[in-house]
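Minutes, project huddle
Topic: does the predicted pose make sense with sodium ion bound?
PN asked that the exact inputs be recorded in the minutes so nobody has to dig through chat later. Recorded below.
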Amino acid sequence: MKRLTVPAIQGRKVDGRTADPLVMLTAYTARQAQLLDPHCDMLLVGDSLGQVIYGLPSTLAVTLDMMIAHGAAVVRGSYHSLVIVDMPFGAYEASPQQAFASASRIMAETGAAGVKLEGGAAMADTVAFLTQRGIPVMGHVGLTPQAVNALGGYGARGKSEAEHAKIVADASTVADAGAFGLVIEGVMEDIAIAVTDSVSIPVIGIGASAHCDGQVLVTEDMIGMFDRVPRFVKRFDNVAALIDSAAQRYAADVRARAFPTDEQVYRPKK
Ligand code: KIV
Ligand code: NA
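Predicted holo structure (tokens), as shared on screen:
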């Protein structure tokens, strides 16, 4: 199976509709990418790795080098899904030139197919600058976690008329600037529907609406690695319980000298 391309993903939305919703999950490691790859259209190396892998309080301290290291691992671990890497906070907002310097490193050093960046109208020039220079860009509007300090938290966006209008306008601006796709996160459902129907590029929802052209979740949230998850997450399994159980039984075996056994030790052949 050949790896999906940006035009192939974009081509899934025809006349404003995506018949087969696009499946996207986050991946941060090679093995995780291998396991998810057959089931997904896109893998996102999200800057959520700051919290999920590094235990950071937000995505703000995630660096370009971290994104590149994990992005390269995910590309190595996958061969079917389109891989998109998040641009981390501080690596792109200052100017289109700064964004190009960061994005070109991501493209060259990871082999990913494109980058994702947060923001609406303020990022339009940057989205255009990158796309015109051969770097596919996915936008991200609504709840933009890198702006948590300005937003005042991770609550759903678009509860006021003004905010509703701003998010819809941001989405069109980013689409018009040349983005190939858009993530819309943590918004009142009517906004997600309006955005999905108003832009010609695929709109991937998270905490948005089943009406979107696709869905994305943080894999560790989706598989049940955490006790607390946002309301918009559905836990499809309880991997935390599996790990806890395996570690508990391993510890008991070690303490009882019940592991290793004959099957696991090396002895000279008789
Ligand atoms: O960083 C991330 O995982 C994301 C998705 C939740 C969209 O940006
Ligand atoms: Na992100």
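Observations noted during the meeting:
- DSSP finds eleven helices and ten strands in the chain.
- Strands lie at 13-14, 17-18, 22-26, 42-45, 82-86, 114-116, 137-142, 181-185, 203-206, 214-217.
No decisions taken; revisit at the next huddle.
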